[in-house]
Design brief:
Length: 131
């Protein structure tokens, strides 16, 4: 393992979230449904475990009835310098299109570019680059 991998729990939208993140970041999705893993505590086609493998890695699943979904407060996922500036700006713009800009991606007084954006799934991202 090379670092922390976020694991997000959704109320029936894990597949859509992983597909969205794949469209943003690239990579491959691996999905296992409740039925495939022998779970009968939710819909058979719900995602019991899903992974986005690529430049940005994420895990996601759908919750079974009674399980809590991910609610993110006071946390953001930092993608500082993880790609070329044009790529980072594209990621920011894509998240902003269906989400909301918390702090525009712009040159800051300390000489770097960064900004904060919340995507349509409620995940907050800190995106930026040096110079």
């Amino acid at each position: 393992m090379t670092g922390i991998t976020p694991y997000l729990h959704f109320d029936g939208t894990a597949r859509a979230a992983l597909e969205f993140y794949r469209d943003v970041f690239g990579g491959e999705i691996v999905l296992h449904t409740f039925a495939e893993l022998g779970r009968d505590d939710g819909p058979a086609d719900a995602v019991a475990h899903g992974m986005l493998q690529g430049p940005v890695e994420l895990f996601a699943s759908d919750t079974a009835p009674g399980e809590e979904t991910t609610v993110l407060r006071g946390i953001q996922f930092a993608l500082l310098g993880t790609a070329e500036p044009a790529v980072l700006e594209g990621w920011f713009a894509t998240f902003a299109a269906d989400g909301g800009v918390l702090d525009p991606l712009a040159l800051k007084p300390w000489g770097d570019h960064d900004g904060q954006v919340r995507d349509r799934f409620g995940v907050t991202w800190l995106i930026g680059y040096q110079g």
